[in-house]
Design goal:
Length: 177
C-alpha cells in the first residue's frame, strides 16, 4: 500500500534527483556475487524485476536476476557473477527512478504524504510531519494543537487526495497523544 524513504537526504524526503530510496545493500550471497538487498519499499513487485534499472548510490545498474530469500532480495546486476566484482557495493543505498514506477491514477507512496493536511469530519488537524514504522504498519505523526498518531491502515485512512494535498481520516479525536 505505501512506503517510507529512509535516510532522508534532502527536502524532497528521500528523493535524490527524482529517485526513491528503496533500501540498502546489506551484503553479498554466495560466490556468484548476488547482492543481498534489504528492502524498505512497499512496491517491490514494480522494482525487483529483471531488466529494471536500480541505482547503487549514484551508479545505474540493470537487474539481470532476482529472487526473494530470507527477507532479502538476492539481486544480480549487470550480469556480474563474481563476488569480487560486487563486494564494493556493500553498504550502498539502493534507489529506483520514480518515473519507472508506472503508477496508476490514485497511486501514491509514503513519501507523497509528507506535508499533506489531515482532515476528519470536515475539520483540519494539521500536517503530516513524520512517518514512523512500527514493523507492522506505518504511522502518520501529526502536529497540531495536540499530537496525533494515525495508523496508515484502511480503517483510519479513508482517502488520500494528492491534488488537494489532503488525507481524510476517521475519528482523529480518538487518536490524540
Amino acid at each position: 500500500m505505501t512506503s517510507l524513504c529512509y535516510n532522508l537526504v534532502n527536502e524532497t524526503r528521500g528523493c535524490v534527483l527524482n529517485k526513491i530510496h528503496i533500501g540498502f545493500v546489506q551484503g553479498v550471497h554466495g560466490l556468484r556475487g548476488d547482492l543481498k538487498i534489504k528492502n524498505r519499499f512497499e512496491k517491490t513487485e514494480k522494482v525487483f524485476v529483471e531488466g529494471n534499472k536500480i541505482y547503487l548510490n549514484e551508479e545505474e545498474h540493470t537487474i539481470t536476476k532476482v529472487k526473494f530469500y530470507k527477507g532479502h532480495y538476492l539481486t544480480t546486476i549487470d550480469n556480474l557473477k563474481d563476488i569480487n566484482l560486487v563486494e564494493k557495493y556493500i553498504g550502498y543505498d539502493v534507489y529506483f527512478a520514480r518515473e519507472d514506477l508506472k503508477e496508476q491514477a490514485g497511486d501514491y507512496i509514503v513519501d507523497d504524504l509528507f506535508g499533506l493536511k489531515i482532515v476528519s469530519n470536515g475539520r483540519e488537524y494539521g500536517l503530516v510531519k513524520e512517518i514512523l514504522d512500527n514493523g507492522k504498519y506505518k504511522i502518520l505523526s501529526i502536529e497540531f494543537e495536540k499530537n496525533y498518531m494515525i495508523p496508515l491502515i484502511p480503517e483510519y485512512v479513508l482517502n488520500v487526495d494528492l491534488e488537494r494535498k489532503t488525507i481524510e481520516v476517521a475519528d482523529v479525536e480518538g487518536l490524540i497523544l
